Amino acid sequence: MKKIKQQIEQAAQSQLRTKKELLVKFLEEEVPQFAQQANIDILSEFNQFVQEQKEQQFKKMSQKVDVPVESLKYQLDEYKFRGECDSRSITRELSGLSLIEKNRKKEQIMIFIKEIGDYYKALD
User: CA 69, CA 45: separation in Å to the nearest integer?
Assistant: First the structure.
């Protein structure tokens, strides 16, 4: 495991570098549990770990901006498909807020979607 971490640290590919933290976290937190189990599909376990990490990020942002997780996931789908968020849909989700607060949260959502979309792009 130490050797794998060293190779990740020295990776030349930019996509691998951007995933470094996620890979190292997986290796440190999850892989040690597998030593006690036989026939573990590491790739499957890693994919599940990635989905759990992404879900935690969605929940955290959902609470921060008071928008349902499903709406954030819809925005991510829009970003993946069109290359941008559905601005009108975000505005509808934020109805009832002052214009300043609405704009602040809308910007936070759009930044979050772009970052999470770009971060997990190679893993989806």
Answer: 23
